[in-house]
Amino acid sequence: MFRGVERPSPQDDEDTLLQLQESFVGGRQPAAKSLRIAGTGKPIKDPAKSARLTTAADNGKKRSIFAERRAREQGAQDVAESKEASEIPRLHREVVSADALFGEVMSDVHERSPDPPSMMAPTGPHPSAGFPTVVHRSQRLKQIRACSTRITESVHQRSHFNEFLSLEGGDESPDIHGQNLQTLQSMSAQEIEEAQAEIREKLDPSLIQMLLQRANQKYGRDESHVEDLVEPPVVSQQPCLGQAREHSSVRSAGGRSELTAPDLSTSMKDNINLRNPKSFIETWIPADKAEHEKLEWIGFMEDDIVDNSAVTNAAELRFDLSGRIIERGTQIPVHRGLHHHGVDPETPGYTLDELLHLSRSTVQAQRAASVRVLGAIIADIYAGAYGKARGIALIWHSLRANVLLHLRFALDDSHETVVTNSLAALAASVGTGSLTDNDEEQCWDQVLLTRLSYRAYAISVSNQADFKSRASGREPSSEKIDHDGSIGSVIQLIRRDAILGLISTDILARFRYLLQSRNLPAEAVNDILQILIRICRHSHAAAVQIAECPGLVDVVHNKFLRGPWPSISKSQSTASLNAVKLLRLLCQSGRDIAESLIRFHIVVDAMKFIMLAPDQLTDSSRELSWYLQAEVWSLLGVLFSYGLCIQLFNDYHSAILSCALKLFGSEVPEASPSTPTAIARSQILLLRMITAFLKSAEGMSDTCPPNHALRPFADLVLKKVLAGQRERNASGNLLHSAAFDMLALYGKQVLADPTDDGFNFIQEATSIMDYIRCTPMPNFSVARSSIEVIANQVPVATPPLGQHLVGLQNKPRTSIATAMLELNAYFEYGCSLMTLCSSFVGIGREWDEFVSEQLSTDQVLGWVTGTAESLDRIAVHSDILRWFLPGRGMLLCSWLLASEILQSHGTVNYSMDGIYGCAVALAALPELLPGEECVASKLLNRFILHPRVQNTLIAMDESLVQVETQELAPQRLQEFLDYGLYDNASLKRSEGLFGREARGLDSLILDEQEGNASLPVRLDWIMSPFGLLLAESKKFGHLLIGAKREQKNREDANDLVAECLALGERVDRIVRPQWYMTRLPDPVKIARLMCIFLLPSSTDEEMFRRTDINKLLSSGLLRYGTRSHRWNDSELDEACGGSGKFFQLYQELVEHYSAVSFGDEVFARYLLLPLAMHYPSDYRELFWDHLRELLHLFTMEKSQLPTADDAAQFYYPYETEERVLLLYASALASGKVTSSSTPFLYDVAVHHLSAALADESPESVGVRFKKRSVQLAASKIAKDILDDIVWRARSDGNGRTVECAK
Length: 1302
Fold this sequence. Notes:
Blueprint: H1 14-26, E1 34-37, H2 56-59, H3 65-81, E2 109-112, H4 137-157, H5 161-165, H6 173-186, H7 189-202, H8 205-219, H9 224-227, H10 241-246, E3 249-253, E4 256-260, H11 266-271, H12 277-284, H13 352-358, H14 364-383, H15 387-400, H16 403-411, H17 416-429, H18 439-447, E5 456-457, H19 461-472, H20 487-496, H21 498-503, H22 507-517, H23 522-538, H24 540-548, H25 552-560, H26 570-589, H27 591-599, H28 602-606, H29 619-641, H30 646-651, H31 653-665, H32 675-697, H33 707-722, H34 730-752, H35 761-774, H36 781-796, H37 811-839, H38 845-856, H39 858-869, H40 887-905, H41 914-924, H42 933-944, H43 947-956, H44 969-981, H45 984-993, E6 1005-1006, H46 1024-1031, H47 1053-1069, H48 1082-1090, H49 1107-1124, H50 1129-1136, H51 1141-1156, H52 1161-1168, H53 1177-1186, H54 1218-1230, H55 1239-1254, H56 1261-1275, H57 1279-1290
Parallel strand pairs: 1-2, 5-6
Antiparallel strand pairs: 3-4
Helix pairs in contact: 13-14, 14-17, 16-17, 17-23, 18-37, 22-25, 23-24, 23-26, 26-27, 26-29, 29-32, 31-33, 32-34, 33-34, 34-37, 36-37, 37-40, 38-40, 40-41, 41-42, 42-45, 44-47, 47-49, 48-49, 48-50, 50-51, 51-53, 53-54, 54-55, 54-56, 55-56, 55-57
């Protein structure tokens, strides 16, 4: 009867448990009895029962478990000592067949009695039934010491192989090996061969090979007898053990089974394709029984290793645990942990997909390691470590594989290491964090030092696309993603914009929880803060999400701003620095957010970082303290730009002044090489903060402090900055730029209130003039060398990695931005110098003469002219890299405005050349950036479209076309351009940035909303009315702009077009074209002029048939067509707004010509331009087919074409499209094209037909064409035309005759 196992209960004591254990062991009999055998081969008898443990009843006293165990061990030791010495084992054994041992498996198993082990022995007896054995700690300590002694002795004993054979005790493997050697020596050669055959039959060949390799490694390859024991298997014949077992012939002989492989002849072996699994399977398995799909794994791997550098598929790249690419063929040991994957296990490293799979593993160590590697890979992509091709391929593969979403899932992990690694990887994904060098963030911090320092650019994907579309004249994509909370919509958002996608996953709430409830490492905390900083830079909407996330700002405030200062550790100081920067960016994002932070005293809590001078801190905290102080200055400057916290300056006036005195008075410490940079940054931002305060304080006399409160700061500038030696580097230029701007505004305030007992600016003007004369602007050659370096880097720099990433996205672009900032410091210095000079024109004749002298010096004019001439060297007009060079256009504007102020004042004899001024304005206008709309308005209305300037241009050339427009047409054009380039909202925002209407400034982050018009303008802004009018056309509005607008026809369209064409002609023929018009390709201008033929007229007559417009179109064709030489359709497509757009425009032009042209010659000449041979044949086919009935209207000769100097582009290379050749023949046969009426078209058609007839190459278009042309010529083409074609076919143009069949 079956009786179950009695199991212990929680109430059982130790004695009960021991009884249960003995009962369990006693009730279970093993399948085979185990007998221990001594060296003589006789079984050892069981120890006497008297030597076993006596029970508690024997002595009447219960003993502990450990006492009982010690008694048992002592009895066993007594029995062992009473045994007789064992005999030395015999080395000779009979060779017994392996099959003979099979019958003894279920019988008694005889074991040898091993001697005491030479290596570490177990610390206690092994449990026989699975129950753990309890060991007293004193007994454990004795056993460990004894084992340690034996290990030390054994190390000295096993030095040589021969010594193993003479040892008594120790490891038995040498003894067994010696017995095997003696057995082999006693066997004959035939017996050895039989034994080897038997071993090969029983064992896997790969196992035999492995044993041989181990023997070679253990005993050395000089032991030749070891390799002779077994013949190595032929792997090429038996690639798989399963194949040999299944398809071999088995025969019994003498009780032994023998397995032999099929006998393959040499020729048969050669015919087997071991690289092809199918061929190999069919060799061993009958074709009717082979299952190829299941047996593909047995095929051999390719020996040809493919270099990973040739792998273009990012999914095939493999990485090590540091994120480095492992090139295929690299031999890496298995113990490195790079072979633990299912796909290609013989190849070390992990693919991106395998890492993503491991990131969702149930083992936290695998999750942590995979996420860490993913972060390293992303950081290396940003750093450009993988090169251009691999970097782009990897980022797009990661986009398709949803790497960012996997990292976001890892952020919700419960394990701290996984969370920390995911934070680092997420930070690297947005271009910041501990895994990156943070160069891009440093570039954005450098932008804070410029004149419009508190203007911030939104780095979102949509804002970058909007910037590019405005700069290129193309409409941005208006596709939107409806986020419904599903995982699919989140994936779409991440693929469109990484930061927007992360925000949609409630990552901000997760950050709040981690900061508030988890004790994360310092690096992880800073990664969170840097990600939040990156989100703030993304857009106004993203910053609002941070501000509105419940509790997030409070956590940052309480954790990093309310703590003691100075901080205990450097990591805490770094976190405080990032927290203040985050608050500053939140304030920049919107006035309402700034007001909330002020209301909750967050700004006041940040003021403590300026209360303690950094030079009083230790070396470890000093540098960070300088940066923290600079961030506080920038935070105050942002608030002052809104007109907020004016009273805060009064409350902390003494503290700010004390900091300024120490900042400009103390010597630079020697703590760190970067400390001077930190101090210079704090100095510059302090002056920028005071400048912002002065801008906003105008008109706020109730809250603005009196002049004497600001006088100490002005004294510091004069005595410490201007009186000191100026350093000719970026920091020195920016410091003096900030000093000039502050003095300019403070001087205006003093001059506006001369009764106030304060700073006497007129008396200090002399020292300012002396300083400027002693340190003039350097020659432009300093900037020209930097411009050349940048110009060479821009074309080869890696383009943006992916459409979903934000910011600069890679290291090469960051390097260009850094170089641009270095160059921009010179432009900033020049801008501030011009502003200072113009601010005090009229205070005295001496100052006015000084200003006139400065504006006319060779250095200043060299900078103006050199800047205008070098604008096209750095071709980044539609790239956000322009954000890092804001001073280039402003330098030209500052010189123009200063010259105008000085000229209009009239105290000195100074006159600016109007033509030169117009040229400078034309060069500067496209260079202005968002936020500078008020400056663009001044350039447009004062220096370009002003009647005085236009009348001067007209008087310069009497051959200009006189337009027949109404009196108000120029004014309407001015309004059209003024409101078309920027709207009222952008203009109002710009006024606030420049210090006027500061209370109306809503945000300092320039994030353009949909439908808003803003800078930058495109290079062909003069011709922009043509495209805008065409976009408003009811019939042709779809050609240039994809988004639908309100379609209407303007009543003054004809006058606007005439005035715009006249303006372009004046600019081209009088103003220096190399400063403006040459930056724009001629095909773009031609495409813009072609739009005029489709514009709806405000009269009954077609617009292009109006006399003055027709003349201006003809003049424009001559100017731009002559210089165009080799155009390409990609340039024209770019001009029209996208791929294939120009062909659509050309289709409409052809149809419009056939409908309303009445044979207009100017219209016809424009249609001929795309017939050049470097354009696709679609244009020629469209022209000759659709206009076949109107070809007789194209009467112009070759000399009348604008491209007459380069007429070969219509003839070479020869036409190869048969369809076009047949159209040529049809036109000649119909009589629409003749040598007398249409000489140019006739010459083109005959030229290409003759070339096709002369082509004798097999299967060429000429051979196919001859069959049709002969039939067509016999029936339709006149004989004289056919003779002309044949005659030209006989000659190749160089007098050489070519055979041609008629």
